[in-house]
Amino acid sequence: MGREEKHDREGRTATKTRSQVKRPAMFKVFLLNDDYTTMEFVVEVLQKFFQKSVEEATRIMLHVHYKGTGVCGIYPREIAETKVSQVIDYSRKHEYPLQCTMEEA
Known about the structure:
Blueprint: E1 3-7, E2 13-17, E3 26-32, H1 39-50, H2 54-67, E4 69-76, H3 77-93, E5 99-104
Antiparallel strand pairs: 1-2, 3-4, 3-5
């Protein structure tokens, strides 16, 4: 932390301490494989909520399909929570059981 000194009218020195801004904790957002959600729908979700290109979304979708889970992105807690909620709500609206979770990176 740096110190900044200022003098008042009587010549006394006041010391002001600058605090360091701490970076927020980051969280990985995952999609989980299931036997019912179509590959096309997973690609759509990755494009819609994670701004992935068709190629990147397809790569992640195949990773989820073959490995059981895949990282969609890494975000601060509030953004990760919002994305998880949006994906689950969108999936249910379209009658798919797609699961989305998060964990600290």
